[in-house]
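FORM 12-B: Structure-to-Sequence Request
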């Protein structure tokens, strides 16, 4: 029987690293992406020989499209034993007074509601497989960031979701955990100027930036840690202590 992992945002730097690492552990993969077909195909081509996988273009803010993806996954791979919520958006830095209602809706639809919706649709799978949910939040969800109010609020919501759902699902044998990354060197942060990046590196106690592999290693731990649930694991080089 396949151990099926659904990884959202698989075309991104963090999502692709997570997917590749899970493939090494023998998981069959459902690789969700929104539009970056080329990146997810490069990921698929790099997976170990014999890896069972499927790629699926899906807007996770669309309920019908999300349900269609899960139907396809069930038909081709089976029920999910693990879901890793790596998809998300980060609006550019700006004062909260300069944001508008559309920005609020976009951030919360993608970073919060889509995570809650997909998890709810997978509850039957997870209960039957004794599965696990891993949610990617952010250090800003723990402490907040000036000029990133919407992102901080959305990522904080995911921490509350993790803790509450972990308590609710624990009697069913389902574990729910959260990872709060620090600064990770990905395309999402490529627009930040070099001076700011260097300043952040200097402020980090371990004196380096994070890599997608750092997050993938944390996912591997939480996927197999059978006595860990409801936790927020900071992978940030010690910047939030």
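FORM 12-B RESPONSE
SEQUENCE OUT:
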């Amino acid at each position: 029987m396949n151990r099926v992992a659904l990884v959202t945002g698989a075309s991104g730097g963090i999502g692709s690293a997570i997917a590749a690492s899970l493939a090494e552990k023998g998981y069959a993969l459902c690789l969700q992406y929104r539009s970056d077909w080329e990146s997810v195909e490069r990921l698929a081509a790099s997976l170990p020989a014999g890896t069972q996988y499927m790629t699926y273009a899906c807007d996770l803010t669309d309920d019908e499209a999300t349900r269609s993806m899960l139907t396809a996954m069930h038909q081709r791979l089976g029920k999910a034993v693990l879901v890793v919520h790596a998809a998300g958006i980060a609006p550019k830095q700006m004062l909260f007074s300069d944001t508008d209602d559309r920005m609020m809706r976009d951030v919360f639809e993608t970073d919060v509601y889509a995570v809650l919706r997909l998890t709810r649709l997978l509850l039957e799978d997870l209960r039957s497989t004794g599965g696990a949910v891993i949610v990617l939040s952010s250090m800003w969800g723990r402490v907040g960031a000036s000029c990133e109010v919407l992102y901080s609020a959305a990522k904080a919501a995911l921490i509350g979701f993790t803790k509450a759902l972990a308590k609710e699902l624990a009697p069913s044998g389902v574990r729910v955990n959260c990872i709060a990354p620090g600064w990770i060197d990905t395309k999402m942060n490529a627009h930040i100027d070099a001076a700011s990046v260097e300043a952040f590196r200097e402020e980090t106690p371990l004196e380096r930036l994070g890599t997608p592999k750092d997050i993938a290693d944390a996912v591997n731990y939480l996927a197999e840690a059978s006595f860990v649930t409801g936790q927020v694991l900071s992978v940030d080089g010690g910047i939030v202590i």
